[in-house]
Structure formats: C-alpha cells, structure tokens
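DOMAIN: structural biology
WANTED: fold as tokens
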Amino acid sequence: MPTMPTLVLVGHGMVGQRFLEALAERGLTDTHRVVVLCEEPRPAYDRVRLTSYFSGRTPDELSLTDAEFIARHGIELHLGDPAEHIDRATRTVTARSGLQVTYDTLVLATGSYPFVPPVPGKDATGCFVYRTIEDLLAIEEYAKEHATTGAVVGGGLLGLEAAGALRGLGLDTHVVEFAPRLMPVQVDEGGGAALLRTITGLGLSVHTGVGTQEIVADGEGGAVRAMKLSDGSELATDLVVFSAGVRPRDQLARDMGLTVGERGGITVDGRCRTSDPAVYAIGECAQAVDGRVYGLVAPGYEMAQTVAAALASEDGQFTGADLSTKLKLLGVDVASFGDAHGAADGCLDVVYSDSRSGTYKKLVVGPEGELLGGILVGDADAYATLRALTGSVPPVAPEQLVLPAGAGAPVALGPEALPGDAVICSCHNVTKDAVQAHATLPEVKKCTKAGTGCGSCVKLIGRLLPQSGETGLCGCFPHSRAELYEIVRVRRIASYADLLDAHGRDGARGGEGCEVCKPAVGSIIASLAPTIGADGHVLDGEQAALQDTNDHFLANLQKNGSYSVVPRIPGGEVTPEKLIVIGEVARDFGLYTKITGGQRIDLFGARVEQLPLIWARLVDAGFESGHAYGKALRTVKSCVGQTWCRYGVQDSVRMAIGLELRYRGLRAPHKLKSAVSGCGRECAEAQSKDFGVIATANGWNLYVGGNGGATPRHADLLAQDLSDAELVRLIDRFLMFYIRTADRLERTASWLERIEGGLGHVRDVVVHDSLGLCDELEALMADHVAHYRDEWADTLDDPERLERFVSFVNAPDAPDPLVRFVPERDQIKPDLPLLSIGSRPLEGSLTS
C-alpha cells in the first residue's frame, strides 16, 4: 500500500486542537499520518478560562481533548517535546528529544508569548508571566510562602484575569496600566470609568496612566519588594505578574527563512499558507492577509478550519475575523463588538451610563441607522443579540436597545429579529440558520460546535431552538423533572453521570450536563437517597458538584461574600440556655443578629472559614441545620396555641415542632414553608404557606399551595377536622406527591395551579387514593424520616468535607480581605460602595 502523507502540527494549544478536530471531521486523519509536537507537558486546555483554576477548576477539567480522541484518530502526540529545528530543503522537523519527522505538510500553531517590558529587575525572584497552567502553579506556590501583596503590569484582558487570580490567592492586589483607562483596546473612556469604579469597589487598587520603571529587589537576584512607577511613586509588592500583552511566537519561522511581518507574525495568504507552499500558520503566530495578528481564539479557530478545508480541497478563505469579545472579569460583565470605538466615517454614538449600578452601554450607529458596534460594561445580557444585529438596521430605535427595563426599553428583542445569516457563535462562525437546523442544544454543540467556545452565545442558542411541545428539563434530557424522578426511583440510579449516560440526549451523554439539570437531579437523588441506596449528604462525591451555590457551604451566601448561619428552632420554641449560646456565638464571632418573620434567628456576617467553628459551638448546644440554604423545609411557624393563649383550641406549638422535626432536611423542587395556628384567628399566618394547619374544636384543617412573595396566593383547604395521625398522613402524601410531580424550582402554589385537575386532582390522589399511590408515598416519607441526619453534624465529623471551608486554598487560615463590615445600630453591616448619582452621594435619612 502507498505510504500516507505526513502532516506535522507544531503546537497543541486551543487552535491546534481545533485544527485536529477539523481534520477529523473531514476524514483527513484516516488519510494522513498526523504528528503533533507540543511544548507544554499537557495536551490542549482552555486558556480562555485559565483563571477558573483559582476558583476550584482542575487542570483536567480545563482540558479540551482526551486520550480517546487522540487514539481514535491515530494522532501521534508528543508532549513536552517542542520542535527546535526545521529543514525546509529536506522537509524535516527535529524535536528537542532528537525525534526527526519528515513532513509533506507542516502547520505552525506556535501561538504567542507574553511581552515583558525591558525594565530593570524584570528577572528578579517573584516576577512571573501569566500564560500557562505551569505559570499559574508557579504563582500559586510562590504566593503561598512569600507574598501578601501582588501587582499586575497591564490592565487589559489578560491583566485583569491575572489580577483576579492574585485576588483569589488572598493577595492585596494592584493593577498598573500605562494607558489612561483599563482595557483600552476593548472599551472607551466611559466604559473604562465604569469598569474602574466596579473593580476598585471590589478592593483592588488600580493605577492608570503610569508605567513601570523598575522592579526593586533585595540585592542582585533577590526577591521583589517594590515597583517604581513613572510618576515617581513606589509601590510595595512581594510578587509581580507581567501581563502587558503578547507577541507572536514566530522565531521558528524566522529560523527556517519564512516571511514574517514587520511587527512580527508569520505572513500568510487567504488559505493561511506561508511563503513556503508546504507550510501553513494558524492562530496567534500568524499575520493574516489584512495585516493583523489576531490575539483572540475565534479567529484562530477560523484559520484552523481554513487550513483543514484547503487540505481537503474545499473552498474557503480567511480574510479577517470578528473581534467581538464577551467575558466576566472579576465578576464584571464586559463586552465589545464591531466598530466599538466608532472609527467609521459619519457614525454616531448612543450612550447609557448609570454609575450607581456600574452599568455603561454604548452603541455605534451608522448614518443610515445601521448598528456598527458597541461596548457593554456591567450588563452584557444583550451582547449576543446586538452582535448578531451588527451591520443591519435594528427593528427598534437604538436608544431603546440600551435603556434598562422600565426606562423606555421595549420588551427584549427576540430571536425573530435576527436575519438567518446573522452569526450567532463567533468562535465557530455559526449562523442562525445553522443553529435552527437542529432541535436541541447538545445537537447544536455536537454538529456545529456553537456554544463550545467562550459560551457567550448559549443563552441565545437556547432561545432559537424549538420551544413548543418540548417537555425536557433542559437540553441534556428529553424528560421532564417528574419523569426523571420516576426513572431515578424505579431504576434506583444513584449517580447523575449514570443518569445522563443512560437517559440523556444523544449529544449530552458522556458530557458534564448543565446548570439547569445538575441541581435538579441532585435534589431528586437527595430526596430519594434512602430508597435508592445513595449517599444523601450533599457534600460527598459527585453530589457536591451538583449543588447550588448555597449548598456548597451549607450556608446562605450574602451580597458582600459573607454567609449567614441559621440554626433550626422548631416552632420558634427555644430554651434560655440555647438562646444564651446563640448570643455568645454572635458576640464571639461578631455576627449581625436578626429575628426573622419565620420565627428563626439569623446570624449574618460569617466568613467561610468560620462556619465550621460556629457550627461546632451550635451543634454542641443541641442545634442543627435550619436548611436556610437548601431547597428543603425551612420552618414551621406557630403561635403559642392552647397552652398559653385564651383563644387557642389546640396545642399548635407541639404540632409545629412535630411537623418540623418530621420533615426537616426534606429536599424538594423548591423551598417549603409551613405554619400551625392554634385557632381561627390565624396568628401564625398558616394560609400563606406551602402547607398550613389551623386548629378547630374537632382537630385540624389542612391548607396547601399558599405563598407570599411577589405573587401571593392564599392556600386552599384540602381536608378538615383531622386527627393528629390523619393530619400527618395527609401531609406525608401531599409533600411526596409534590416532590414527585413538580417541575424544577416550582413552588407548591404554582404547581397546584399547573397540575392537570388542580386541587381536585390532588385531593383525589392524596385523600382518596385515586391512583393507588398512597402506600408508596407514605413509605417514601417513612424512609426519609428514618434516615434523616443533620448535615452540619455529619460535616463536622468528616475532615475531608471540612477541607472545603476556606477562602483561599493555598492559605486555609487567611480571611478574605474583601469581606468587610462597618458598624450600624451597635451591630455590623456589609461595607459596600456608597450609592451615588453622578458624583453626588445620595443624601437624606429615614426617621421615625
């Protein structure tokens, strides 16, 4: 058989991996020997999300490929073995290890390298660049032992990413930017000002309009101790990260005699061919035909597709790319698209700015009303739609596109406003028509790769897909939540991964799921844990990864990054001794203390590392978790009832305590609230609860489906004059039927209105056993009651679970410096930025 032609890929970053996928999609891995020389010790990973490593993502989770893909396509991948010499005459590549490969086609995807300004002291100990996972590991290790303050040179995209990383490591962080504003390439003066206000409000120090003159170290080769700035000031710091831009890695091309641009970058034509027809260049190392070196991943992906198409004898040219970007920097949404700075002749700006909320929106509009580009800071929800409308005249006036809801803005533009050729996914150049050729999000991702890049288009893709008749919980499952409940219960599936692999949509199987189905399935597994033999603790194994934010730390996250602690106080009854313990804990940890409307005591202002210490004191005193953080029973409120009240006809406190202890920890589609009133005067407000009980002279009346909030609903009478045993039995049935059939995040009120037959059907099922389910529903509740364990008590007994309760993984005992408080009314409140209109603070006060 004839020898297959050899294709050598030099570099295995994001663009290199996309090129391999493009080859595989065209079957070229079956007709070519493919050899990859990778400088880094690990295969391609998501460099765009590099900073997420500091928020708990592992290098393996950042990976963009796997051994199975490499093996299936017969790709020869050499890690840690970069190309060091290329002989164009013999078409031979020599790697660092001495490996020699003769190529028929050579593709250079060597990427870029960080630019380090030529300032004195730049090589001092404690100076780093921010480009690879190995860079992050080195920064983390050094910060752990040697640094409390860090400085980033550069306030662009990468610079702010690096600043977020240093902040995540617990360092006092400074950003030094030579330009007069942050992110000067992406945003204008107004956007930079909005970004600056928000970032400084997070506790970072920003120095704009100054350059780095010198890195001051302790002696020659010593450790960093300061930076000298161009304004004559000196900034004390223990660690410096250079993130002042990147330069094309074109030295290999220079050495082999290829043509490079005047300012760097391997010169390529529209097919991404270099000056040698057998050699191509893609990504950040290449200078395209428009004279640009693109520093974004989307143009690199398009170049990868162009070369793969050329090798497959397909048409296609790379003539330029969309430079739109959307990202979240230090928790702030920032986006720019099209002609963001208004360089076109005759263009006009439409600007909305709200310094109170840190929101800035600018649209650039052409003379004929066409949308040319824009900048969004603080609120970038409309980014995908606006970017897709670029080049066309929007269906509404441009000022209505930037105004917030209630201030003249129309209903959000729907997908129908976009033309069929509008590009929805700029990373993979996928149009609206291409998206709508598929039925589900997993199918779109699998067939077009839309939504697998930066992820900013996923929400819009979801709105473009068919909605009518779709009963699936999300794009990962074709089943509703109720159907998934039955699958888990009947087949005793105790693992989310097993459920996804066995019952997920074709494109979702073997994947990671999404933010919709993971907590929903986690709740189902938790509620059925005793029945299906699952580990019911939410912090164990796979379950921990499925939970919502609050469940990760068994506490409610507050607006300034602190947490609240809510011990269970069944029925609102508490002994003096326990009340004293709560007071002592609040005093010793400096917590804000509030008695709530649900007859609980909330303790606010705990840092994450304090939570186990606080709960150790509370558990020792006999308290347990109040589940204020979970989609579970919160509280059963009660009046004092017959025991003390002259109007009471039943012992409401006894009943409330009994119900709360029976249903505590019960995981449900949404939170559950309850109340017991000792007479018809209804002091406990039982008819505004998910299930409420009102005493009568003959027993108890049971009401269901009530709630307060934005859309209050009075509860409906389900049954009356019940004995204690009858009441508990009906509540058991009602709650398990609700958990079994409700949608995700659906309160009992909306469930009761949605379910076919409404209250009458529910009464038939739980009172008259019309479906023959009551024995099963009661057994499920009995399983829950028999296997209940306090989540906090179990957590305190498990060293592995306790390891998660730290602000910074590399400094377990260090508090988060951004969690700050100020005094108010002899307690504390979060220290948050003052609200202001323009430059004037809001004045005035509330008086009695």
Q: What stands out?
A: The CA atoms of residues 386 and 416 lie 13 Å apart. The two ends are 94 Å apart (CA to CA). Residues 834-848 have pLDDT under 50 and may be disordered. The first helix runs from residue 14 to 25.
